[in-house]
Write a structure and sequence with these properties.
The protein is an all-alpha fold. The protein has one domain: LemA-like domain (de novo design (two linked rop proteins), Up-down Bundle). Helices cover 74% and strands 0% of the residues. The protein contains five helices and no strands. Helix 1 runs antiparallel to helix 4. The longest helix has 62 residues. The chain is rod-shaped. The termini are far apart. The C terminus is likely disordered.
Length: 179
């Protein structure tokens, strides 16, 4: 009789541990889905910015006196590169700065309807990328907290999950992120 009670007790403990494991594992999966969703939105927004800057090259060149001048070299180089969203974001900010320099140096660009549309699109995409960054970083904060806190860190280690970097615009290739 005692063996049956001990067996039943062990079975209940194992079921409890299994339910706990499944609950925390599903919690991780929810964060992974949300991270992927945020990354997809960031990627879409960055591609939109890239396309806008790419369209501006022709408009800027048509207003230049020296047609041989390379305009927005950064964008031209980015066409053939595969970059992470972090690196693409940094490169696009450099291109936007160059775009703004052309705007300042060439007042006649401000009269171009297409140029104004591109400028408005870039302005709108800036607010989108800021919101996407905040959403992504909020999710990453929760995910990284789950990775570090006991007892969920046990499931994280068993599943091979690692901390993820924040999308903060810093050059993460020069930092040690303690993954």
């Amino acid at each position: 009789m005692d063996i049956i009670i001990y067996g039943l007790l062990i079975f209940i403990v194992i079921c409890f541990i299994l339910m706990w494991y499944i609950g925390i594992y599903n919690h991780y999966q929810t964060y992974i889905i949300r991270i992927n969703e945020a990354e997809a939105f960031i990627d879409t927004t960055l591609r939109k910015r890239f396309d806008l800057l790419n369209k501006s090259i022709g408009i800027i060149k048509s207003n230049l006196k020296d047609k041989k001048t390379d305009v927005l070299d950064i964008i031209v180089k980015l066409r053939s590169q595969k970059l992470s969203d972090f690196e693409l974001d940094r490169q696009l900010y450099e291109a936007i700065n160059e775009f703004n320099q052309y705007k300042e140096e060439m007042p006649n660009l401000r009269n171009s309807e297409n140029f104004i549309k591109i400028e408005l699109g870039l302005f709108e995409s800036e607010s989108e990328i800021v919101a996407a960054r905040k959403y992504y970083n909020d999710i990453i904060t929760d995910y990284n907290t789950l990775i570090k806190k006991f007892p969920s860190n046990i499931i994280g280690k068993l599943s091979g999950y690692k901390e993820k970097p924040y999308f903060d615009g810093k050059d993460d290739s020069k930092e040690d992120i303690n993954l």
